[in-house]
Amino acid sequence: xxxxxxxxxxxxxxxxxxxxxxxxxxxxxxxxxxxxxxxxxxxxxxxxxxxxxxxxxxxxxxxxxxxxxxxxxxxxxxxxxxxxxxxxxxxxxxxxxxxxxxxxxxxxxxxxxxxxxxxxxxxxxxxxxxxxxxxxxxxxxxxxxxxxxxxxxxxxxxxxxxxxxxxxxxxxxxxxxxxxxxxxxxxxxxxxxxxxxxxxxxxxxxxxxxxxxxxxxxxxxxxxxxxxxxxxxxxxxxxxxxxxxxxxxxxxxxxxxxxxxxxxx
Length: 265
Ligand code: NDP
Fold this sequence. Notes:
Number of helices: 10
Bound molecules: NADPH dihydro-nicotinamide-adenine-dinucleotide phosphate
């Protein structure tokens, strides 16, 4: 009974930005549960390597090179996945970037680039998969937010706006598509060790130790920490769970900095 709840055998998942970082961590979880995977990214060599990693887990895995901010590229990508893997049951909107600048220094082109990659792409991909999921009698959409879906940061105005927006977009799609048996949920990662945050650690003085001090689990997250939540939100186990935004953060979002300091002193 339990194993069937989380079984993804016969399902097909699209993971945008699945060629590295958190996306690859989720894709590995979905593949281990039996899903065939399409990895979407711009860097073809990286995507090919990820598809090989996933294929070695015994599922079909393909890489598709596409810019998820481009409506025509998204449409072509969805067509190719449906053609090559036969169906689309799960969409993970994970592709994301950040440009770390305060609002007074951020250029409008930089604003659009972050919003388009982190938020508009989720709209484009979700809208594009909706007909196939509806026709199949249901589906699962997983959007990736952030701690910046909850908090603001002086260095991340566009990023925080995009990640706040993704939660409201998740809720709206969950309402719109509940009758189509499509569950739409968001994951809010804490501070995870990936290329994205490696750059942040270089650029923001003291970030590494401040994250450790505020995280009850007392460590940075690993990409493997996202396998379980991805399988839950992609499987029958979450059929009555929709519109949620679930932190996967080692407790970062429930721990106040001062409390953390006084408790440890
Ligand atoms: P990475 O930089 O490792 O991964 C980002 C992925 O997005 C890459 O695979 C990249 O592939 C893809 N990508 C970026 N732009 C595009 C585009 N226009 N079209 C297609 N693919 C694109 O970062 P993370 O794994 O850390 O981030 C993954 C998600 O998790 C993001 O949404 C991020 O905001 C979120 N997140 C991360 C946190 C962390 O601590 N790491 C914390 C909170 C949220 P390619 O370069 O090939 O295009």
